[in-house]
Each structure stands twice: as C-alpha cells, then as structure tokens.
C-alpha cells in the first residue's frame, strides 16, 4: 500500500481550515486557489466541520459575507487569487478599517493582462497598504502553519480594536418636535430606506391584533406609501422618507425593523426593545443572530411571530428592561468618540517618535 508523503499547498491550507473549524467560510472559485474552498466544502458536506459554507456569486460578495459574519461575532475565512482579490478591493479596505480579524488565503498569481495564470506577487502588492497583516509562506508547511497562527494573531487584543460602529453624536439630540398621540403605546415599523419586505401584510396584521399606534416609515418606496395611505385606521401613521428617524425611535415603545447593521446599531444605541424581521439572506442573518443570542432583541421568522413578539414586549416590562440592559452591555454608545480619541492618542505617539 502506497504512503502519501505530502499535501499540496491548497490541500494543506484546507486541512488547516478544517482544524480551525471557522464559523463561516465564504468563497468564489478562481485559479489557482479554487482547490481550497473545494477541499473545504467536502469537510462541510461530510460533517467534519460545523462551518456555514456560503457559496457566493463573486469575490466581492465573499469578502462582504465575511465582513458581516465577523461584525456579528463569528470567525470567518475566505480564499482567493489575482483578479479575485482585485474584485474584493472595495471591501478589503472596509474590513481593515473596521478592524475585523478575517483570515484570507491568498494564493499568489499575476493579475491578468490580458491572461496570466503564473505565479507572482502583483495581487498581494496591490493591497500592500490596505491595512491587512500579511504572512508570506515559502512552502506548503508554512502555508499550513501560518493559517493556524493567523486567527490568534488577528484576534489578539493588541491587534484587534473592538470599538464598535460610530454613530454621529447629533443622532442622540432629540428635539421632541413630533406631533404624535400619547394615549397608547407607539410601535415604529421600518424596513430600510427603500421600504423592502412584506410591509403591507405586516401592517395589516399588527393593526388587526394590537391596539397601539403604528408609525410606518416607507422610505423612498412611494408605491408602498400610497397603498398604506389608503388604509382606513385611526391607529396608523404613515411616513415616507424622513431625516429625523432618531426622534421617531425615541418616541417608540417597540421598534420592528430589518437587521441591517446600521439600523440595528442605532436602535440599540437609543436603548429601545425591538423585533427583527425579514433579514436579507447572508449578512443580515448573522446580524440577527448576534442581537438575538445576546438578548438585545427578539427575532421573528414569520409575520405572525412579528405580532406575537411585539405584543409580548409591550406587556412584559421585565423583558424590556432585559433588552435595554443587554444593549448597554454589548453596544458602545460612545464608539465614535472612542475611535477619535484612539486616533488622536496614537497620532501623538507617532509625532513623539519622530
């Protein structure tokens, strides 16, 4: 019986990923790194790892998915080469500026012009100054070793900067100029600036089952606003695109929203109980899991659950307090100030060393 003496670099990388057992791997195949997600996907399919494998439609989406996963608290990995890295360009800088400890296997290849699949470092050199730590491997063993070390390095407290998503201080300056009734609870329903999702059906269900004022923000979705304006119900207040969302959040007793990163952050910074619904598959699912698992919000999988969970929050003051306390625990309300203070402090340090 023959004995296999060595693994290819790609197989060694995939084996290291198997031992790491990351929470999320998102990748799109490109020569010569294709084998890494290919080998790893077999580990996923046979149950050797617990990883959520996201087969995306492009490298840009692969890095986007990793950013969302890491931002939600998951450990994420990907792999690419050459033009695939070039397509990630926009997201590469977002990942580093957010200090997210994503680990990427970059199998070096010349950036095509018009076609070149041979090895050189033009892909890595293209993102040399993007803020990523680079570990170069001279052989297959080092490719394996560097991947095993990578997460430990990236997640070290002296490397990672866990400050949070900055929100302008003006967001908390509530002027209370809203002319909203105060004799009932107020529910705020929003579904992003475009007003996506099953908003109309959700509105009808809430109005039918809960005796509270329902403020619906339709964003720029004029068609949705026109439909809701035609509903004859004294509890319904319909708004189009607004630029004072913070004031409506401040007035609300409960907020129903999609788990977009910025919206969820703003809600938790306002310290409001909220129900998450209709996540866009991918990043928003991880956002929802993060807020749900840390008991900062509840997650509804159906419109019926939206209604029942909203009603439960309104009736359960203990649950409201639990959510608000956990929001204060996990979400830094002063992240913008902390980030500025960090930059100023370290810049002064650079000046002192000159």
Helical percent range? 40-55%
Helix and strand run: HEHEHEHHEHHEHEHEHEHEHEHHH
Q: What's the main sheet like? A: 6 strands, parallel
Number of helices: 15
- Assign an overall shape: elongated
Secondary-structure-based class equals alpha/beta
Strand order of the largest sheet: 7-6-5-8-9-10
Terminal Cα separation, in Å? 64 Å
Please report which band the strand proportion falls in: under 5%, 5-15%, 15-25%, 25-35%, 35-45% or over 45%: 5-15%
Q: What's the count of strands?
A: 10
- Mind telling me the C-alpha Rg? 24 Å
Indicate the mean pLDDT: 86
Low-confidence segments, given as residue ranges, are none
Gist?
With 354 residues, the protein is α/β, with parallel strands linked by helices. Helix content is 46%, strand content 11%. The chain has helices spanning 9-20, 35-45, 59-71, 82-87, 89-97, 122-126, 140-154, 199-209, 222-229, 245-251, 261-269, 283-293, 303-315, 317-330, 335-353; strands at residues 24-27, 52-55, 76-80, 103-106, 186-190, 213-217, 236-239, 254-257, 274-276, 298-299.
Please tell me about this protein's structure.
It is a single chain. The chain has 354 residues and is an alpha/beta fold. 46% of the residues lie in helices and 11% in strands. A six-stranded parallel beta sheet has the order 7-6-5-8-9-10, with helices on both faces. A four-stranded parallel beta sheet has the order 2-1-3-4, sandwiched between helices. It starts with 8 loop residues before the first helix and ends with a helix. The mean pLDDT is 86.
